[in-house]
Amino acid sequence: MQIKTDFLVIGSGVAGLMFALKVAQFGKVALITKQGIMDSNTTHAQGGIASVFGSLDSFDLHIRDTLASGDGLCNSEVVELVVKNGPDRIRELIDLGVNFNINEKDLSDSESPQLDLGREGGHSQKRIVHAQDMTGLEVETALVNHVKKNKRITLFENHIAIDLITFSTRMKRGLITTTHEDYCHGAYVLDRKKNEVKTFCAKITLLATGGTGKVYLYTSNPDVATGDGIAMAYRAGATVADLEFVQFHPTCLYHPDAKNFLISEAVRGEGGILIDTAGKPFMEKYDPQKDLACRDVVARAIDTELKKSGDDSVFLDISHKDSEFVKKRFPNLYEKCLSFGIDMTDEPIPVVPAAHYMCGGVSTDMYGKTDIHRLYAIGETACTGLHGANRLASNSLIEALVYAHKASIQAVEDFHTLDSNSIPDLPPWDETGTTHGDELIMVSHNWDEIRRCMWNYVGIVRSDKRLARAERRIQNIQHEIREYYWDFKVSADLIELRNIATVAELIIKCAMHRKESRGLHYNIEYTSRDDKRWQKDTVLRRPFVG
Ligand SMILES: Cc1cc2nc3c(=O)[nH]c(=O)nc-3n(C[C@H](O)[C@H](O)[C@H](O)COP(=O)(O)OP(=O)(O)OC[C@H]3O[C@@H](n4cnc5c(N)ncnc54)[C@H](O)[C@@H]3O)c2cc1C
């Protein structure tokens, strides 16, 4: 089946939804998403969105904090762009019906109510615009409501993109060859309900497929975060960058029944203190900012404490604060912890670090353009240069919003230069000679092995030896996946397995390349930052296969 559209948007998080709404004013949009529309990292975002609204705050301060966190690798032009565009994008969300918290003192002043601003680690000012502790859910819900009402947007849920279609893509699956003058014409997409591969032909294609958390055993990310956009773009010949910079969130709830549940940074922002099993605070040993240090410092500190003590978790304690304040500020966290038998107003919460955010991704310019014509990438799947070697907390939602705006303007311009002949005839998906998979154990075993291998060898603390070991394992697994992929019909699990293996390979390659420690990349063999040799991005591009 072939579906023709003006804009193909892959992913229904904040990046994809916002872009879809903007470009829909100019053409037809097909929005595909691999599960339900709400299944995204965005829905899980708790803390909020960083933007300059405070009377003591300024663009310069937000820029300075972002650059400090990025540890010498941010693109300062991009930082300025995102920070200065931030307030307009927040106002746009408010106009779309997003209810952010208003400062209590201003509730009576209906003329000029001020947004309530939280503070998070690495921010020198209060600047986190939030909707209680469910900011992502509030934003996602508002955008989804608008998308569903928009007649120019056709939504395809349970549709998982397999591969991009570039001009020189040979149409036998897996055999993608690229020239350096490629054009993207859409994607092959598996309709999971009908088990049918459809050809989506588009004038403009957007990758907004989110993060890569599922590459690791422990993650705060939901199941959809398998790095599909990065893997697809790399296979199609796009440049990817800085994938060694994986942010581990220091505080995920440690409980056998709690899958991926994050204890927001904002808890430390509001006075929460990290303590060990004996109840002793330990952050002062690691950073002068103590519990408000940047995420990587806190995650490494917890990793060190756990390796030293052999304990299963450390604890985050906010029980010294007024219990009514805690319940009101963190209603979602409070309820969730209570459902696991932990009353955070009265006792410390057991926490461990977990893979949380991918700073690297598909390389783009200031408009979200990749180096494949008519292919854009925005949101967590992209590497714009904003985060450098370490993302500042709450800078990702704002990046996605600013780039949805910038990319939509550029994409519409591109679109207007194209006519109806701009998409060549694309042959359908070719699955001759394949049968239904008979060794599903191969898929589930390799899923597990990749994630364990990445956690153990390519985690918070790395070494050359561990990376080399991981590289060998992942190469073997990829060999098996390739054989299986060629012989059997595709399924969502197989598509994702292939993608997490590719992303694992790319993370390892980037990590092996960088012979220093910087931001989120820490290698015990090169413990300091080396600006002379390594103050540059790690860039990878798939070799040309003729
Ligand atoms: C628990 C948690 C808390 C967070 N808190 C904050 C915070 O407070 N502030 C902040 O700024 N950031 C936060 N983040 C990070 C932030 O939520 C994400 O970076 C951001 O939401 C990414 O948006 P996105 O649109 O790029 O991707 P997502 O929201 O992840 O959306 C990606 C979409 O692509 C779809 N998709 C993926 N692959 C395919 C495919 N092959 N085919 C079709 N569809 C596909 C997915 O199903 C999903 O719909 C948090 C993240 C997590 C996990």
From the spread of the alpha carbons, the general shape counts as globular
Largest sheet features? 7 strands, mixed
CATH topology of the largest domain: FAD/NAD(P)-binding domain
Total count of strands: 18
- Which small molecules are bound? flavin-adenine dinucleotide
Question: In DSSP terms, counting alpha (H) and pi (I) runs of 4 or more, how many helices?
Answer: 15
Could you tell me the strand content as a percent range?
Answer: 15-25%
Named at the architecture level, the CATH assignment of the largest domain is 3-Layer(bba) Sandwich
Assign a percent range to the helix content.
25-40%
- State the distance separating the first and last CA atoms: 29 Å
Radius of gyration: 23 Å
Secondary structure category? alpha/beta
What is the averaged pLDDT score?
92
Low-confidence stretches: 169-174
What is the CATH superfamily label of the largest domain?
FAD/NAD(P)-binding domain
Provide the CATH top-level class of the largest domain.
Answer: Alpha Beta
Which features would summarize this protein structure in a list?
546 residues, alpha/beta, Flavocytochrome C3, Chain A, domain 1, Methane Monooxygenase Hydroxylase, Chain G, domain 1, seven-stranded mixed beta sheet, four-stranded mixed beta sheet, 18 strands
